[in-house]
Amino acid sequence: MDLVGGCRAFVSVSEFGGFTGGAAAIGIPQPVASRRIAALEKHLGERLFDRSTHRAQLTPFGRSMLPWAQRLVNLADAMERDADRARLRPIAVAVPTTCRRRDLAELDSEARAHELFLQFRPARPAQRFELVRGGEVRVALTAAPSDEATWTVPLGVASAVSLRNAAVHLEALRIGRAAKAPKRRVWIQPEDDVPHIRDPLMHLRDRLGLQPAQVSVAESLTSAAATCFGSADLLLCSAAQAEEFGLHWHRLVGISLDRGYEITADTGDEAERFRVKLWNPVARCLGGGAR
């Protein structure tokens, strides 16, 4: 039986002294209140009310049970209030430092439509994984190889000046020893300093005979972009990032690089909610398109 529902009807009818008023106070029809109390009496094995009078008079057994019923109803109400607060408590989410504030705000707004309230913590790839593993956040957008990822973002190179070709061959960065022009470099930003992006690019650098410094990891995205503004250097980035910095974006020839992202969460349910309900706004935050 519905023990809480029966106790709620029992308490309300006893407070109002009648089945009609007690039922109305808790928003149920009078016959429903009568059935719930009858079921509670059957469950407890004794009458709670003396039905021989016009008013709902408590029996001696009913007076003994009333304090217990009140406590049970109060506990149920407290549990529901705590459940509401827990449902509205923000979910801490570790996100890439490359996510723009507007995109995060749109993600937060769409999450609220699904009763999810988010609190963002920007961090680098390795830090995001450690944050969720250490329990400091409940969800993290973690780096993953593209074939294992839920979201992928194609990478190319961006330059301050528009190049003649839409695609860039890295061997074009190789110049003779006698050349006086400074060697052009490709800067890897911290978000892409992960094995499945960094290592293939470094291997291509070595195979093409470029100098080690010509493909380097930058201290920050800001410093890498600043260097590209004042030189012919190239920034490894997504098309969305190139647009954000006002740079010209080009595909890379001879290598295909993608940022991959997966959800790491302390529960499978939370991970699934992000994948199913928030796929599009998460994709925008990461620099990809909506499906």
From TrEMBL:
Q: Which GO terms describe its molecular function?
A: DNA-binding transcription factor activity; transcription cis-regulatory region binding
| Annotated source species | Saccharopolyspora karakumensis
* UniProt keyword Transcription present: yes
- Please give one Pfam family short name: HTH_1
- Family label: Belongs to the LysR transcriptional regulatory family.
- Coiled coil location: none
HTH lysR-type domain location, by residue? 1-59
Q: Where is the signal peptide?
A: none
Q: Which UniProt keywords apply?
A: Transcription, Transcription regulation
Q: Output this protein's name.
A: LysR family transcriptional regulator
